[in-house]
Write a structure and sequence with these properties.
about 170 residues, mainly beta, Metal Binding Protein, Guanine Nucleotide Exchange Factor, Chain A, seven-stranded antiparallel β-sheet, four-stranded antiparallel β-sheet, 15 strands, about 0% helix
Length: about 170
Amino acid sequence: MEHQPLSHAQESPQESVWDYPRPPRLEPTAEHVQVFLGGRLIADTTSAVRVLETSHPPVYYIPLEDFAPDSLVPVEGATFCEYKGKAAYFDVAAGSTRARRAAWTYPDPSPGYGPLASRAAVYSRKMERCTVDGEDVQPQEGDFYGGWITGRITGPFKGAPGTGGW
């Protein structure tokens, strides 16, 4: 089944994270996604891709060209996702503000996840503010996960204490 991008003009029905698949699915979206840090707008797009995975709020991957110049600073270290492959990390910078290891990408993703190679996701908890269609995002709990919770997303969500075994 092919997924059509959502438009902010369309009705946004409630989504349960327990209806999301495993392995995760990529879904293009035309929602207006913005990221703010250090009093600056550092990312602004209507061309994000949502990664939808069972028990997780969506993770929004923003095209690299939709980040402000010099806002993504590559750093050492990597992690591995059994589905998406090896992740590389960035510090996110805005003026004198720097959020350590606050964004990531999959420069050479696993088959089926190719669109992530030209995009990066940010931890909303490390940003000043993240919005989807003007709504402030609530970060997914936990130190590892990067899901964005909006009013249309329902849980419970993986990431809180005691949910590691889900």
